[in-house]
Amino acid sequence: GAGVSQSPRYKVAKRGQDVALRCDPISGHVSLFWYQQALGQGPEFLTYFQNEAQLDKSGLPSDRFFAERPEGSVSTLKIQRTQQEDSAVYLCASSLVGTGYETQYFGPGTRLLVL
Amino acid sequence: GQNIDQPTEMTATEGAIVQINCTYQTSGFNGLFWYQQHAGEAPTFLSYNVLDGLEEKGRFSSFLSRSKGYSYLLLKELQMKDSASYLCAVRDSNYQLIWGAGTKLIIKP
Questions:
Q1: pLDDT tens digits for range A1-12
Q2: B31 and B90 in contact (C-beta within 8 Å)?
Q3: Which residue out of B45, B97, B105 would a mutagenesis test of the A interface target, given it has the greatest number of A Cβ atoms within 10 Å?
Q4: I need a surface site. Which of A47, A95, A113, B97 has the fewest CB within 10 A?
């Protein structure tokens, strides 16, 4: 596709509900990143994939957060038993190769509200 | 710890010039990025500096001094559509992007 796409754009969940957020990176991009952005703040790193391998998950805030990219393209971020503090925008970004020097291109984000 | 500092908010007039500063302290340095983010939208790439000096790209320029841990983004001939948040991010020794909180730029007619 022309850019990174994410779905859903908006998600309202009841506390305790599980949610799944999808990211479609730019076709051919090797690296994929997930970030969490609170209102008025910069993005905070969650996790990083190179193809299907999750190379860094140091930013995941708890074991309720899980991400996968089984075929090296589409990725899903899953949050189990959502809490109110999980409310944020979840951004996905991709870059062409995995050397670490490339520009990251962002999707529009999924705005999650946990009630 | 790692830290990126930039002003929270700035106001400028349409047609004028504005400079947004960013200072950083990170574990290692592998380049500095500036992104623009309109409210409710994705950050979009503006510039990348890895060597000292000024990079010019149309109305936007970005400057880096690695010895001072300092960068600025210069916007000329401001337009109303430039109203947005401007995010400074540094790639550290682990190739992770460390982000500032962003500077909200308000353009007045």
A1: 579 999 999 999
A2: yes
A3: B97
A4: A113
Spatial CB neighbours of B74, under 8 Å, sequence gap ≥ 6: B17, B18, B19, B20, B60, B61, B62, B63
A95 Cβ partners below 8 Å, 6+ apart? A29, A30, A31, A33, A102, A103, A104, A105
What is the rounded distance in angstroms from the CA atom of residue B13 to the CA atom of residue B78? 7
CA B31 to the chain's CA centroid: 12
What pLDDT, in 10s, does the model give residues B35-88? 999 998 889 999 999 999 999 989 999 999 999 999 999 999 999 999 999 999
> What does the pLDDT look like over A105-114, one tens digit per residue?
999 999 999 9
Beta partners for residue A10, in sequence order: A111
User: In A, which residues are within 8 Å of B105 by CB distance?
Assistant: none
- Residues A60 and A45: their CA atoms lie apart, in Å, by 8
- Rounded distance between C-alpha atoms, residue A9 and residue A3, angstroms: 15
pLDDT at B1: 73
Partners of residue A56 in chain B, C-beta under 8 Å: 94, 96
